[in-house]
Amino acid sequence: MKLLEVFFAQNFRNISGNHIYFAGIENDLIYQHRFFIENMQQFKSLDYVKNSYNKRICQIAEERKTGKKIIGTLCLFVPDEIIFAAGADRVILCGGKNDTISIAEQYLPRNICPLVKSSFGSIVNNGCSGVKSCSHFSMVDMIVAENTCDSKKKMYELLGDYVSTYVLDLPQNPDNPEAIKYFLRELEKFKGVMEQLTGNRVTVEKLKKEIESSNETRQLIHKLYDLRKVDPPLVSGLDVLKIMQKQYFLSPAELKRSARMLIEEAEQVKMDLGHKPRIMISGCPMAGGNTKVPEIIENRGGVIVVEESCTGTRSFWDLVDENKDPMIALAERYLKIPCSCMTPNDRRINNILELVREFKVDGVVYYTLQFCHGYNIEKYKVQQALKKAGIPMLAIETDYGDSDIEQIGLRVDAFMEMLS
After folding, report:
1. What is the pLDDT of residues 145-180, one digit of tens each?
2. What average pLDDT does this structure show over 311-317?
3. DSSP secondary-structure letter at 315?
């Protein structure tokens, strides 16, 4: 791999500003992609999403005045349906910005995941540092966390000193026959915590209503992803990411509205700008504010058609069975999420191969955050499975900083040339 990277690096030349091109193909790959980007549909719905933050903050502030409780979450394993059925609202607290990491490093080791540090720094930031955190981080009444990776669960032990924190425990082997029973007991305890916090009883009827609503959202996002199955896709990966990063911040009603608007606009796209390398991103989540790698990919000649991540298919792929007891159905659905904290995790390998076929993927960019040991270790098994399927893979390990942008760009350029 090192020799291949050296070969590619020696055959690059800089011909214009900061854009790096392969010698001899600047009028092919890069030119075609620039034409593709400039002629992509500019969706009004994305302006609506971009400008939604202040409106949502005002909504949360009004809810708090009426006594409604606001729950902060950091992971897909926490069922929104139980939170909403208890009459509370929910916002995601995953940090995607580099600014608050220095604050977190006053408490946490430097050599842990930047998402964990960014989240912790945003929550405990008291403003003395001069760094401004997003307003919603300070507006929650309780954080509902989950027992996933080591860095997160140890961080939660410190987090409880700053805001009320409840940790939902998870079985680590989802295929164990006892796993569903254990997780169901954990969800029942969580339901009791929510009832005590809000003073509202979580009934079967309320749960069924919220399950139907959440399934409707998941089906809408499925429809949005279906628009990416055509070649070329009707909507870019960056445009979809803007929606997906807001899915746990916006209210369910506003998320549905935004998704419908984007779907309606994208369905009107008629242009055929030719084939671009169809890329899947697989690996770590990309919290709001973190778009570095997708921007590099789509600015360097690829088009992202699917994400196997928590800000991608893991968040919506499986529906909750509406014909079962709601608590059992929730336990079954959420335990299907193929997070790298689970072991063994063959379900994730199978999902990746299924998505490769369904979205006609040409190559996979395996994205990991620095010091995310779970996804970094699983990289080997994913690579072997993709190699057997004849699908090239590029592994990128990075953080939230911009010091490696050019280096990543060179490697992505080489990968796109290989796929083209």
Report:
1. 999 999 999 999 999 999 999 999 999 999 998 999
2. 97
3. G
Average pLDDT score over the chain: 90
Q: Is the pLDDT of residue 417 over 90?
A: yes
Q: How far apart are CA 135 and CA 127, in angstroms?
A: 11
Identify the CA nearest to 413 among candidates 2, 45, 11, 3. 11
DSSP helix/strand/coil, 279: strand
Q: What tokens does 207 get?
A: 């749960």
In this prediction, residues 293-305 reach a mean pLDDT of: 97
Q: Are 211 and 322 in contact (CB under 8 A)?
A: yes
pLDDT of residue 264: 95
What are the b/e assignments for 153-186, b being 16+ CB within 10 Å?
bebbeebeeebebbbbebbeebeeeebeeebbeb
Task: Determine the pLDDT at residue 60.
Answer: 97
- Listed range (102-116, 211-225, 259-273) with the worst mean pLDDT: 259-273
DSSP 227: T
Residue with tokens 């409880």, as numbered in its chain: 160
Domain ranges of the chain: 2-419
Q: Does a cis peptide bond (omega within 30 degrees of 0) precede residue 344? A: yes
Q: Is the pLDDT of residue 32 over 60?
A: no
> Buried (b) or exposed (e) across 365-384, using 16+ Cβ within 10 A?
bbbbbbbbebbbebbeebbe
- Given this model, what pLDDT does residue 42 score? 75
How many of the other CB atoms lie within 10 Å of CB of 232? 19
Report the candidate in 73, 59, 67 with the shortest Cα–Cα distance to residue 87: 67
Residue 276: per-residue pLDDT: 94
Tell me the backbone φ, ψ of residue 142, rounded to 5 degrees.
Answer: -155, 145
Strands, E assignment, 67-195: 70-73, 89-92, 142-146, 165-168
Q: Which of 7, 21, 3, 4 is nearest to 409 (CA)?
A: 21
Of 289, 342, 282, the C-alpha closest to 309 is 282
Residue 5 has pLDDT above 50, yes or no: no
> Residue 288: how many CB atoms within 10 A of its CB?
20
Q: Which residues, including other chains, have CB under 8 Å from residue 144's CB and lie 6 or more apart?
A: 71, 72, 73, 78, 83, 165, 166, 168, 190
**Beta bridge mates, 165:** 143
CA distance 226 to 308: 15
